[in-house]
Design a protein that fits this description.
The chain has 318 residues and is of the alpha/beta class. It is built from 11 helices and 8 strands. The chain has a domain at 223-318. The structure holds S-adenosylmethionine (SAM).
């Protein structure tokens, strides 16, 4: 794949590292329209670049941002100007100005302020309180909007504008249930719902009932679908894969993340793609379950021999 394009907005659930894998799975089928009921930052579609796409999310700020790009209310030069000017004020106030912008954004929802907050808040997180207000604190860093960063962000905005202009994209702020009502058999639906039990915020909560509903809609739609989820981490497995998604094909990818600085403190998670069509290296969910029960697999569709002790998984709960 070409160089991965990183969108200007950040989020904790962003799939940048999995884009190539999702893209290679998507390339196994023909479809007329790409549909994302949970678009988030949009990184997956913006890299796959389908000709036609329906991009939806329950978070109005994400949709407003991309609609503003599409309508040219936001351009890379406007972003450059805004972040440079606001960055100077932030620097002068020693960070206090961040909270002024946050209050302003929570009153008027300006997409340029959304971008400013996304790029200066703690860990690039996206979190909203019970009233729907953005509530992530400032991430202190000297000269947060240095020239090089402002240029990088405005280039990202320019690149995403081109991608949107080159296709037929529709952005809608709506619940996934409304998006699923619009799908048909020639669509490819990429679903990346919030992970059950992970975190809850105003625009981003998820229940077992919704997971089942999502499955029912996808199954009856006759559309091809790809669903992102996780299969296991060091502590537990995602049992919903074996209950709600039991009729799917599954392919998995091991992903490491670091906790602290030590090399030993690596935690692995198995990301999973569930599909209703065959993709390279997939097996049926039922087959995966049997392999795990027979301890023939370390939760991956390809059998592996592990030497590292941190990869010895607990198979409890299956
Ligand atoms: C895991 S994130 C998607 C991340 C995205 N694939 C990316 O790479 O940036 C899940 C998204 O689902 C949205 N969401 C949560 N509940 C929703 C619902 N009921 N209907 C539509 N979108 C929802 C959240 O706002 C969030 O953007």
């Amino acid at each position: 794949m070409k160089k991965i394009f990183v969108p200007p907005i950040k989020s904790q659930g962003i799939k940048t590292k999995l884009v190539e894998w999702i893209s290679s799975n998507a390339s196994e089928v023909k479809y007329e329209r790409w549909v994302e009921p949970f678009m988030g930052t949009g990184v997956v579609a913006f890299n796959i670049r389908p000709k036609r796409a329906l991009m939806c999310d329950s978070n109005p700020h994400l949709i407003n941002f991309y609609k503003a790009l599409q309508d040219k209310k936001i351009t890379s030069s406007l972003v450059k100007k805004h972040l440079t000017e606001e960055g100077v004020k932030l620097l002068k106030s020693e960070g206090e100005y961040y909270y002024e912008v946050r209050d302003r954004f929570n009153k008027n929802g300006n997409p340029l302020d959304f971008l400013f907050l996304s790029r200066s808040c703690f860990n690039g997180m996206m979190r909203f309180n019970k009233k729907g207000g953005f509530n992530v604190p400032f991430c202190k860093k000297p000269n947060r909007f240095a020239q090089a960063l402002v240029t990088k962000i405005s280039n990202q905005v320019g690149c995403i504008s081109q991608i949107i202009d080159s296709g037929n994209y529709t952005f809608i702020n709506q619940d996934f249930k409304d998006t699923l009502k619009e799908i048909n058999s020639t669509d490819l639906v990429y679903s990346d719902p919030p992970y059950l039990g992970r975190h809850v915020d105003y625009f981003d909560s998820w229940t077992e009932e919704e997971e089942i509903l999502l499955n029912n809609w996808l199954e009856t739609s006759k559309a091809k679908y790809i669903l992102s989820t996780w299969l296991s981490n060091k502590y537990r497995t995602n049992d919903y894969v074996f209950s709600v998604w039991k009729n799917c094909k599954i392919s998995t990818k091991e992903h490491f993340y670091h906790v602290g600085a030590k090399e030993d403190n690596r935690n692995a998670v198995y990301e999973a793609l569930l599909t209703n069509f065959d993709v390279k290296d997939c097996i049926s969910v039922q087959n995966m379950r049997s392999r795990i029960e027979r301890e023939e697999s370390h939760l991956t569709s390809k059998q592996k021999i592990y030497s590292n002790k941190i990869q010895q998984y607990s198979l409890q709960g299956l």
